[in-house]
Amino acid sequence: MTFAKIAGIGHYVPENVVTNDDLTKVMDTSDEWIRERTGIQERRYGTKSTETTATMGAEAARKACEAAGIQPSDIDFIVFATLSPDYYFPGCGVLVQRELGITDGECGALDVRNQCSGFVYALSVADKFVASGMYKNVLVVGSEMHSMGLDFSTEGRGVTVIFGDGAGAVIVQPSDSKDSAILASAMHSDGTYAEKLAMLSPGSHGGKHLSAQGDERDWGFAPQEDFGGIFTTQNMLDNGDFYPVMEGQFVFKLAVQKFPEVVLEVLAKAGLTVDDIDMLIPHQANLRIAQFVQRTLKLRDDQVYNNIQRYGNTTAASVPIALSEAIAEGKVKRGDVVVIAAFGSGFTWAGAVFRY
Ligand code: ACO
After folding, report:
1. What's the pTM?
2. Using CA positions, which residue lies closest to atom 7 of ligand 1?
3. What's the CATH number where 21 sits?
């Protein structure tokens, strides 16, 4: 039987460090508030117009190729996860392909739009393509350039302070042994609360979902009988509807429930228990969430890896950046049992367990 394994990993974070104190210069917030509620001390912001979600993804991809001992031209397929794409369309998959110079048409590219769980979903797609024998080298990228799309006024502080930029990537290859293989994964979603953590506009919603929930906002859409004006309106711009919205406490309560559930689910699927975990890498949404999950699962400090303190929440990039750092620091070694798990917008949540 063929399995799929993580053959190489790499990450890239922009040089520009933005501390909590830096944010106090543009909005009413404090280092103390941000540290206490989230654990975040600083994050990175990409350089406008030279760095994008796709270029950062390409940097991480090059490193992952090097670690796997392959050339970009060996990549058979790309799965790219992000919520902050360079363009509304086409997706970043084809842009990273162009950045890597592999545009001969041989390699397919797929974009995953699952926000915080995007990388875990993307990895499971790669796992199935490789384990089925369809592809030999699948590149999975999670990358975000959040800083371009955040509200830096005090109104946006509840969301803006938690996000940072960065990218992580892995090369997934066939394995003939369970000693180095993705053992199980699980994916879940519940669209009931889609608007609780979202960037609503621009979009084709026409106000529909929100008006059904009693929202009486005037989005400025063209009347029914007119053509056009349905995707981007002046009212959207005036109202700041291009910024993400989040009901933080609502998200928090569900996250601390779903994280442990999905960890236990993938372990059970793989015939393992919590005691078998060498390293849990939770999506870096909030240090308090990760600590809650650690307590619930009764894991030791050395069994959980967190780096949100330095990078904030990098959404689809957070798990591969953390995994890449944990490997570089020698905290994850070949053969170790690693569990990754994520919860976020959608809501979507997912987990996977692998022997590295
Ligand atoms: N600085 C100072 N004060 C702030 C800030 C800030 N940056 N942000 C909010 N506040 C204020 C609020 O205005 C509020 O003031 P009030 O009591 O006078 O009204 C008070 O702090 C409390 O605000 P809450 O939003 O209730 O704060 P909370 O303790 O819930 O922390 C946080 C907010 C950190 C966002 C938390 O709710 C959280 O982490 N939630 C989960 C986030 C998450 O997991 N998201 C999923 C991944 S993201 C994705 O999928 C895209």
Report:
1. 0.97
2. 157
3. 3.40.47.10
